[in-house]
Amino acid sequence: MVISYRLSYNSGRDYDQPMSSVSTGSSAGAEASAAGQSAAPSGPAATHGFVRRRGRGLAHGLVDDLGDKIRSQQLRPGDKLPTESAIMQSYGVSRTVVREALSKLQAAGLVETHHGVGTFVLQPRAAGMFRLEPSDIAATVDVLAVLELRISLETESAGLAALRRSEEHLQAMRQALDDFERNVTIAGDTVSPDFRFHLQIAQATGNPYFADIMTHLGTTIIPRTRVNAIRNHDRRGEYLSRVNREHEEIYAAIARRDPDSARAAMRIHLTNSRERLRLAQEAAQRDAGDGPLAPAGGTGTPAA
């Protein structure tokens, strides 16, 4: 029997949702998912009014609750959020759920995480996220798929680089970040130094296959090379400056040979990119009144 699958990035599915709940033509997974979502919350979560809405995951519920507190000024700009452990205990959720929620809040521009320090509420932004043009939507599906691959690949790459990097690797990473920052200031090319930074991390692993994969993918792994709306939106370099701050967090962890922090920083960086793009994609779908987007590789592509 050949099983078909689709890459469907839409607002009805969480990225941390188990693959077993993705439809493969059988209703069993859907029934199991619906049964799990219908369960009423209990324990610490109930005391926060934290309700898992039908069709939405725990991470979405946590985002809604914390986001409401930020927007209502219960949490003000500059306030430090509780630690991951404190949020886990307070809401009765796992560390994975907390990290996914914090990533979504960062992508929405509500908070910013500084490794080793904490997560802080940001000042409200004057401008919203970038808006996708109709011509961007099809490309977005594929870009999201590549980001999903990169999260798995480059998270481990960063951890290995922290353990194995040489001073030469570190200098090359530093040069790439300096070039990126300078080009943001003069509105120059930031794609090349962006890719160089990620490629240098892959090379610093000492495993040639990491670098081979990155070289094969090339600069198209950088979302703004394929989505016009990102380039057009970022008139003042705010998006790129934020990207480079995330790069600096990765670099700092690799420089101090801290593999756990390097993995965490890389995962946050790439997950933020994915979430920023996904939020824009959802807005474009709502504006167009469309349903879920077509799969990246066509409908009903046979699994190998």
Can you put this structure into words, describing what you see?
This protein has 304 residues and is mostly helical. The protein has two domains: 1-126, Orthogonal Bundle (Arc Repressor Mutant, subunit A), CATH 1.10.10.10; 134-227 and 234-297, Up-down Bundle (Four Helix Bundle (Hemerythrin (Met), subunit A)). The chain contains twelve helices and four strands. It has helices spanning 28-38, 44-47, 58-71, 84-91, 95-107, 134-164, 167-185, 191-204, 208-217, 228-233, 238-255, 259-288; strands spanning 4-5, 111-114, 118-121, 301-302. The strands form two sheets. Strands 1-4 form a two-stranded antiparallel sheet. Strands 2-3 form a two-stranded antiparallel sheet. Helix 3 (58-71) packs across helix 5. The longest helix is centred in the middle third of the chain and has 31 residues, at 134-164. The radius of gyration is 20 Å and the shape is globular. Residues 1-42, 51-55, 126-132 and 291-304 have low confidence and may be disordered.
Keywords summarizing the entry:
disordered N terminus; Arc Repressor Mutant, subunit A; 2 domains; 12 helices; single chain; two-stranded antiparallel ribbon; mainly alpha; 304 residues; Four Helix Bundle (Hemerythrin (Met), subunit A); 59% helix; disordered C terminus; 4% strand
